[in-house]
Write a structure and sequence with these properties.
By secondary structure, this protein is an alpha+beta fold. The chain is built from one helix and six strands; from the N terminus they run αββββββ. Strands 1, 2, 3, 4, 5 and 6 form a six-stranded antiparallel sheet that branches.
Amino acid sequence: MMRLSPVRNSKPGQSLVEAMVAIAVAVLIITALVGLAIGAVRSANAAKNRSLAVAYAQEGIEAVRSIRDRSFSELPSAGGPYQLVWTGTEWNWSLGEQTLDTIFSRGFTVTIESAGKMIVVLSVAWSDSTGDHSVDLTSYITDWR
């Protein structure tokens, strides 16, 4: 019976090189996956903040319309920024901007277009890890009564 001796096709140290290449590839893949995960979290956070800002701006426009429905003459004549104030029963306004949820600020400006017609620009601004952002909503408010 003939004995077969193990065949060695590799040179000494070749398996160490293969292990290093495998580790390098694994590190690159893990780094890419972590980068994608961080980007997804940042994107989701930015979308959440923008959605909240739009909701705050829409609420502000509705508050201005509520004041208009009560009496057009109660709205500021021009300028700004003005802040909206909820008294517990109705909306009012005062000078300045208001802070909402620690990172958001909201204010509106008024421009007179003609008698009984004004342009209200409601702005919501915020800062997060990706920088400074803002959302502006414009509405034409008329004295419809």
